[in-house]
Amino acid sequence: MTDTKPVLEARGIVKIFGQHRALDTVDFTANAGEVHALLGENGAGKSTLIKILTGAYQPEAGELLLDGQPIHLRDPLHGQTYGIGTVYQEVNLLPNRSVSENLFLGRQPTRFGMVDHKRIDALARDLLSRYGLDVDVRAELSEYSVAVQQIVAIARAVELSGKVLVLDEPTASLDRNEVQRLFDVVRGLKAKGLAIIFITHFLDQVFELADRVTILRNGRKVATQALDTLNTTDVVRMMLGKDVAFDHHPTALTGGPKGAVRVAFKGLSRKGLSPFDLAVHEGEVVGVAGLLGSGRTEVARLMFGVDPSDGGQITVDGQPVSIRNPAQAVAAGFGFCPEDRKLDGIFGDLSVRENIIIALQAKLGWLKALNRDDQVELAGRYAEALDIRAADHDMPVKLLSGGNQQKVILARWLAIDPSFLILDEPTRGIDVGAHAEIVRTINRLREEGLALFVISSELDEVVAYSNRIVVMRDREMVAELDGDAIASDAIVQAIAGTATEARP
Amino acid sequence: MNRSLRPLLATTLIFLFAYLLAVTQQPAMLSTRVLGNFLTDNAFLGIAAVGMTFVILSGGIDLSVGAVIGFTTVLVAVLIMWLHLHPLIAFAIALIVATAFGAVMGAAIHYLKVPSFIVTLAGMFLARGGASVLSPDSIGIEHSFFTAVQKSYILLPGGGRLTVVGMIMLAVFAVAILLAHRTRFGSNVYALGGSETSAALMGVPVARTTISIYALSSFLAGLAGVVFSLYTSAGYSLNALGVELDAIAAVVIGGTLLTGGYGFVAGTFIGVMLQGLVQTYIVFDGTLSSWWTKIVVGVLLFMFILLQRLVFRAAPRRT
Q: For domain A6-240, which CATH number applies: 3.90.190.20, 3.90.550.10, 2.40.180.10, 3.40.50.300?
């Protein structure tokens, strides 16, 4: 970095919500031609800082300087006029309009008062070609993948602003190839001298893309440092303020399955998924590793009856059961925490208590309503057992952090006293601190004798809690690792082979 | 093909097929005379439906349309017959009143964050009630200007008559098509229907656009009221009862998605014509109850909602 001209500077920013100091005298500088990563746990203040930098919030104290001149931003649109553009995780464009209109909305060239569509399309094609994107600009935006939409959003933001680009979790829903494509675009912009602020919770992406990192914790700045002087452990330590290397329980995990077979699947199959045999024992965690699209989620959905199977048998404690739908799965003592928590897991507007008791109530049937005291007691017990941090169990669950929401879903299934729990990506979209807690919870449940089937794309994590690991590739279970054979390297080798899919 | 074009194409094909079917049953229906009457008889509905198209495209609904039509006919009649104003001045006043009424509803929707359904429901009661207060009885309009307008028309080949009200409707559609598809205002309307949050972040003036949309809808409802008074030579507070629902039906049958963001003004034209076709056929047939119109419209509406579900669920993805 030879060119270290500061473009956007924040000095002594203070932001207070009610009694809570969300940001306490935070300094932040984004230089021209650098990618500056902003890291912090949920609640550390990174989204508050971003909102102040883009104009969505106004600070109580401190000042913003753009090219050395103090500025006051009224709202994000005002920030845009100063050259500060933002691209959000959930692409804030218009899915129903064409790509070119999304690029030029609000500044369409007109002829005789009428919008000149031909010219817009030509301009849009020209603009996107600079980002290596060759798409039909007249097609609706929603016809394209999130990655393409993301690049369109960046192109729009850069066109309109062109000094500072804020990328707020842009890679959360992209696969490996798409992330690379996005990174190429970002590197191109960096070379052009833009200051890029990059927010993510994928540490490996921070190391891959960013030049410097600023770490926030509890509303204060911990450090701003060049990344080539740091390693992952340093960063995590600064984020958490404590060492949280995952406990690899080597002793607890060797020696194979502990108890009797709890659930056994024999020749279970469905169109597009090879038949598989699998037995899960009491007190055992079977981890599933594989790339996106390898059939991991499909297996989980099949087990829980979300998708009915074409053939095969399921036995629970030696007794054959039929599972054609989730209700039968629940009756058999199965629980399922799906991958997309917000969409398929939580009832956002219902309270923590209602979310916890809902599966139990469904199992009991509507005639045997749980009375309020029982509900409060149950919710309290599981909230305590799982350390669910909610100010009040009557608050809507959507107000909780991702980690706490995940624990609410876990509590929901634990309330039915399950014999077999399926977890699909339980730590996705959860900050690092809560991450370790979920892993600890899984370990504890195993020790309590539960049979678990856990899917994860975080290899270190699967290794940390699994007694056995099933590796999936091309919609087939291709390998099973046991005891001492469990190691990240071995899994990677098993996944490799002919695999061409991308890792999320 | 652009998938939002599919419902429009379906409507067009159904209209052509239905017209063909009607002609095989009633050969007399194939004439410019019938077509001319089509335009004249459905002019007020068509004009109101254009306004409704903009409202629905933006993701809202306007239930006050029928009441504003009724109110306008009464106001026009009162201004001409009681205050002896020239009809053109009466029209101008009525249109200004209607537009202001819509702008207030739009402002309430935007600034008070009340759903358009509620605000325009209140608007409906206000306008209908206001019309009854002005005059509970029907007021006949007698004025040389009215007679002159009613008598002027362009003779079409085949003996059909393109009346002034028919021409007004065609002009409204032509202007509205340009407004929706070729102006920034039109883009902003679609943007609001796509996602209000995104639209705001992308710099769409949400307040101004929302107010303009409802002002436009009420202006067109007022114009429909003017046309209605020309068509019937009377002002009556109970005129155009339930026309807002016919307009909504025409918009949806015309291929506009009820949740906003997708659709075409031209589709609404065909939606109105399809309703007119059913009515005309029933008149020609002579034995069917006129309520069959409602049944056919109901079936069509249901079909189109189903069709839209299918088209928009099977969204193709490109990479």
A: 3.40.50.300
